[in-house]
Each structure stands twice: as structure tokens, then as C-alpha cells.
Amino acid sequence: MPFIWLAYFFPLAALALGLAVSVLPVPFTGGLSFIETVLLIGTSFAAVHHAEGISSRIGQPFGTLILTLSVTVIEVSVLVAMMLNGENNPGVGREAVLSTVMFVCTGVVGACLLVGALRHREQEVRQQGVNGYLSVIIAISVLCLLLPQNTHAGLMGAVDPFQISFIMCGTVVLYGAFLFMQTVRHRADFMPEASEPAPARPRRLVVHIPLLLAALGGIVLVSSGVAAGVEELLDRLHLRDPDAVISAAVVAMLLLPETITAIRAARANDLQRSINTALGSALATIGLTMPAMVAISVWVDRPIYLGIEPEDRVQLLLVLVLSIVSFGTGRTNLLNGFVHLVLFAIYVMTLFVP
């Protein structure tokens, strides 16, 4: 493949620069932040490449699980760096989770359904597997983004640490239960028809595994510089809701490799793998990213906001209901893709004109 060497260069370069900035007294500059941002984007693609290499050798659904968990590690590291950068940014976590659900369930899913329908007219997915994704996504989205603001404490404008901790434990339990069903109890519901696990090839795994770990480590190390640079850039734009735009920009950047993977799978008439990748990333984010950020905020004694704005509530509930309808028959077509993409365009508009 052309430029395959970049999958080896970016992880090592990001890791080296991250270690250098951590050890040496390097002053923060716009140029350094730009370099770190380029390395982060390139390393994200490299991480997805190596995760896919592992995926192709260990088979589904474990391969998709590795891919989504890798992206979750990347997202948590960047968002935590943004939350802790300078003054506290307590709204970054909730905006990132909301952006991930909206981007995936409208933009990514819509693009996959549209591309797949244009090439194959109609496509099929295993309805039981998709229902599993959606049921947990709906439950966790409501618990994390809607419930905290509608409890007695939330209505009084306070945050009850016990309530939040209990809700976060519940989200982790739900995600763990889903993983058990996906990887052990009902694996067939998440696999394409007549799909067989690929045999392992130790020599290639020996290459992909350390480079994936190097990529994730490099991203963790350069994420603080990227967060500072993104916030400094967007602060100059005087946006009405900077936290929402910053979180959406980071989510869009980090979801780009998975988006490309999902669209390619849909175009190749493998909609099941496409949906596994798309919905898996959304579920991993709300099931793991939010609890991780809440735990870190408690650990460093910084506040974090969970409730979302009224217009965001309407859009979130709309896209969750639409997702149930779109996959309700197990068959998708062009109209499904158009509806999701229109909602995505409206969501992006409300980021800049809330």
C-alpha cells in the first residue's frame, strides 16, 4: 500500500515528541501545538490501521472491539487534557459525549447508509445485534445526559456526588454486560452472514501490537499540547458556545479514521461491520469516556457538568428514536441515509447558532 510507512512513522514520532516535551522544558508555542496536532491526527489513523491489522487476524467481533477501545483511549486522553487545561472546562465531557452520539448516529450512520444504498440499493444487518447496540446507547445516553438535571438535586441546581457515582457505575455495568453479550453469549448476532474468524498470524501481530501501543502512548503524551492549541484558536473566534464547538471539533477529528473504516465497509456491502464500527464507537464513548472523566474530575477535585441544553435534549431524543426506526426492519435504503444526514446538518448548525 502507498504511504504505508506513515503507519510506522507517526506513532514513533508522536511518542518521541511527547516524551521530549514531558522531560525537557520546552515552551508552548503555536508552532509546537500545530506539530502535535498533525502528529495526533496522523497517529490516530495509524492506531486505527494497526487495530484493523489485529482485527483481521483475530476475527470478529473481537477485532471491532479492539478498534473501538483504541479510539476510546485516544478520546479520553484528549478530552481529559482539555478538561484540565488552564482554567477548568466542566462542560467538555458532556459536550463530547453528546457530540459523539450525534456525529455517529446521524453523520457516520447516515453516510454509511447513503453510500451503501447508492451502490447496493438495499442492505441488511442483523437486527438483534443492532438492537443490542441501540438499547444500551439509549439507556446510557438518557442516564448520563438527561437524568442528572432532572433529579431533585439537579432541579435545585446542585450535584449529588452519590447520584452521579451510582449512575456512572451503572453505565459501566451496562457496557460490560453488552461486551459479554457481544463477545461471548451472542457473538453471532454481531457478525455478518457466513463470517468465519480469521486465523491468527503471530508475525504480523508482533508488528501491529507494539505499534498500536506506541500510537496510543504518543497520543496521550501530545494531547495536552493539542488541547491548549485548539482552545487558543477557538477562543479567538468568540463563539457563543465554545465548549460545544471545541468538543465537536475534537470528536470529529478523532472519529475520522473510524468514519472512513465504516464507510468503506458499507461500500463493500458489509453493513454489519460498518454499523459495528460506528455504533461501537458511540457506545464505547458514552459507556467508558464519561465515567472516566467523572472519575478524574473527582480525583483532581474539579467540577464537571452533565445536563444538556433544551435544544440538545430534543435533538438527542429525536436521533435515538430515528435510529430505532431506521434499523427496525433489518433492511436499509437511500431514504434512511438522507434523513440521518439532514439531522446531522441541523446539529452542526446549532453548534454555531445555538
Automatic annotation (TrEMBL):
Keyword vocabulary terms for this entry: Membrane, Transmembrane, Transmembrane helix
Membrane-related topology note: Multi-pass membrane protein
One GO CC term, this protein: plasma membrane
UniProt key word Transmembrane helix: yes
Residue intervals of the Sodium/calcium exchanger membrane region domain: 36-183, 210-352
Membrane among keywords: yes
Record's subcellular location: Membrane
Pfam families on file: Na_Ca_ex (PF01699)
TM segment ranges: 30-50, 62-84, 96-118, 130-150, 162-184, 205-224, 244-266, 278-300, 312-329, 334-353
InterPro entries assigned to the protein according to its UniProt record, in alphabetical order: Alkaline_pH_Ca-Antiporter, NaCa_Exmemb, NCX_ion-bd_dom_sf
Entry GO MF terms: potassium:proton antiporter activity; sodium:proton antiporter activity
Protein name in the entry: Ca2+/H+ antiporter
Species in which this protein is naturally found: Azorhizobium caulinodans (strain ATCC 43989 / DSM 5975 / JCM 20966 / LMG 6465 / NBRC 14845 / NCIMB 13405 / ORS 571)
Phylogenetic lineage: Bacteria, Pseudomonadati, Pseudomonadota, Alphaproteobacteria, Hyphomicrobiales
Name of the gene encoding the protein in the UniProt record: chaA
